[in-house]
Amino acid sequence: MPLRIANAAGFWGDSLAAPRTTVERAAAGGAPLDYITLEYLAELTMSILARQRQKDPRSGFVTDFSTVLTDLLPALAAQPQLKIITNAGGINPLACAAATAAILRSAGLGETLVGVVSGDDLMPQLPQLREDGLPLINLDTGQPLSTLNRPVMAANAYLGAEPIAAALVAGASIVITGRVADASLTLGPALHEFGWPRDDWNRLAGASVAGHLIECGAQATGGLFRDWQNLNLAEVGYPIAELESDGSSVITKSAGTGGTVTVATVAEQLVYEIGDPRAYLTPDVTVDFTTVELAQLGPDRVAVRGATGIAATDSYKVSLAYESGFAASGQLLVWGRDCAAKARVCAEIIRARLHAAGYTPAEFHVECLGANEGVPGLRPPPTDQFETVLRVTVHDDNRAAVERFTREFAPLITSGPPGLAGYAAGRPEVRPILAYWPTLIPKNLVQPQVVVRAAKEMK
Questions:
Q1: How is residue 150 annotated by DSSP?
Q2: Which of 220-229, 308-317, 424-433, 436-445 has the lowest mean pLDDT?
Q3: What 3-state DSSP class applies to 377?
Q4: Best label site of 243, 339, 418, 429, fewest CB within 10 Å?
Q5: pLDDT at 425 over 80
Q6: pLDDT digits (tens, 9 = 90+) for 8-65
Q7: Could you tell me which of 184, 20, 4, 166 has the C-alpha nearest to residue 86?
Q8: Which domain holds residue 32?
Q9: Same domain for 385 and 297?
Q10: 97 part of a folded domain
Q11: 253 plus 331 within the same structural domain
Q12: In this structure, is residue 67 part of a structural domain?
């Protein structure tokens, strides 16, 4: 029997109903799941969590998981084989585990073993790493971290599948991680269930491809699909990977759910965010996607075969976030035959009034939404446009400059051109900005840690 692993969350903010629906539909169809993965993290998410932890040391994890877990409690009680793997731990997996344990205890499931994977958080050792001269080169700019004269708020290595497998070996039914590579959420269970050698690169590559295909949730089952018009996306099913011991898989979804699984939907996800298709880098294996073969086996069933791989690199990718000043965005509806020109005049009035008040923001970005500026330069502006949404965004290290910007929208209502609306929402919000510094760290400087305990023992 294949190992059935579903994914029911592709980011923090994905459907709260999808996990329970995915589990229940699979069981109702006579093929219950072995694992359900919940993938919540992205670079932006890590920055949001870092800001939350700064305000409250007990936060910094994905709170949606508590809602999802509560919803899954009946399934966990009825399906003892079902295991949950999630990176909902964010930058505080121990706090996430404590919240998880409290939910399990209150449901009478205190004997449930919860695994926690940590060690990805580099903040405790970052000062020493910098003192030791580790360059932490920015992968985009080539600059060393020593050139950054701003406070670092978070730094997390992308761990791999082995700590997840270790937690499962120790009996965990729920594994909570911090930052791990997305595909590793699927490879971890495969390592545990199939017992593959850690240098069986082709099998590891096959399971990593399956993990990559399901990691974004409904993107593999019709979400964002170019032929979306005839799909029922309101009830879209989330993807299931049926993994075989040779590393091949079948991508499918539960019967009766919306969306579709075809070679086309799977191929679109296959090439999503992979960089070099001959060298897709994960902490576990370097995968060659050009050898992968897809075949339609039947309705909503696509075979995935032929993945090959070589050894992973000796580095972990690091997601590092640093303080980068403040930003705010404001918008107004502008109506009339000359709406786009009028909107740009409004933006220049704001800029001039800011300058008169003694402020020149470092960045001042103007958009006329509806004037083909969503993808600049792709299409000319329409000639018969009668309304647009003016959106102006500023960014500066000086909070006072951004604060003053937020006060310059409302005066336009009576002192600007006619045809303005949308001001009832109030002043724009000033928000602190965390910027992204992608880098690498040698694996020998990172020590993943695994703890497995019964929920009743976790506080």
A1: S
A2: 424-433
A3: coil
A4: 418
A5: no
A6: 999 999 999 999 999 999 999 999 999 999 999 998 899 899 989 988 999 999 999 9
A7: 184
A8: 3-120+158-313
A9: no
A10: yes
A11: no
A12: yes
Q: In which order are the strands placed within the sheet that holds 35-38?
A: 293-298, 301-305, 249-252, 240-243, 3-7, 35-38, 83-86, 174-177, 113-118, 449-454
Distance of alpha carbon 397 from alpha carbon 153, whole angstroms? 16
Contact (CB, 8 A) for 156 and 122: yes
Burial label, 277 (beta-carbon count in 10 A; 0-12, 13-18, 19+): middle
Judge if 254 and 397 occupy the same domain.
no
**Residue whose entry in the numeric block shows the structure tokens 């990691």:** 215
Torsion of CA 214, 217, 218, 223, to 10 degrees: -100
Q: Are residues 286 and 329 in the same domain?
A: no
pTM above 0.90, yes or no: yes
Q: Which residue has the tokens 């229940």?
A: 24
Count how many residues are written for the chain: 459
Query: Which of 68, 74, 76 lies closest to 35, judged by CA?
Result: 76
According to DSSP, the β-strands at 113-118 and 3-7 are unpaired
Mind giving me the DSSP string for 283-338?
A: SSEEEEGGG-EEEEEETTEEEEE--EEEEPPSEEEEEEEEEEEEEEEEEEEEESTT
Q: What is each CA distance from 97 to 63, 196, 233, 330, in whole angstroms?
A: 11, 28, 33, 39
pLDDT band for position 372 (cuts 50, 70, 90): confident
Nearest to 300 by CA among 341, 249, 263: 263
What lies within 8 Å, CB to CB, of 23 at 6+ separation is 6, 8, 32, 33, 36, 72, 75, 79, 82
153 inside domain:
no
Measured CA distances, 133 to 119, 136, 144, 314, 444 (Å): 21, 9, 10, 18, 16
pLDDT of residue 423: 74
Per the CB < 8 A criterion, the answer to whether 319 and 220 are in contact is: no
Residue 141 lies in a domain: no
Distance of CA 5 to the CA centre of its chain: 19
Summarised one tens digit per residue, pLDDT across range 303-348 is 999 999 999 999 999 999 999 999 999 999 999 989 999 999 999 9
